[in-house]
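Sample intake sheet
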Amino acid sequence: MILDSSALLSFFEFSVDWEKELCQLVGAYRLVVPSAVVRELQILAKRTTGPKKAIAALKLIAKLETIDTKIDSADEACVQIAEKVHGIVVTNDMALREQLKNHNIPVIFLREKRKLVLDE
């Protein structure tokens, strides 16, 4: 599964046991983070207003595998990796969800601020 920054930030905004939810949706899984998402979170963490969630997300992904991409856009990197590995993208970004749908890529997103849902 490929994590987008919007999903990572939501893990720290809402009280969701995301690890348990992901396991219930797909069983065993491996999480990866595109390097473009890491860069996006690093920029957010440097802002003077509201960097706490981005800093927490960076600490979380330090334990995960990062996939280096030459693409600067986090959204495009998620799409490219998902197509390459036939992966599922975890995101709350509506525009990215639409783009993934157009590419027939499954998406996991947060519904009603309390549960994760798989949209295939």
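Comment: The CA atoms of residues 7 and 91 lie 5 Å apart. The longest helix spans residues 74-85.
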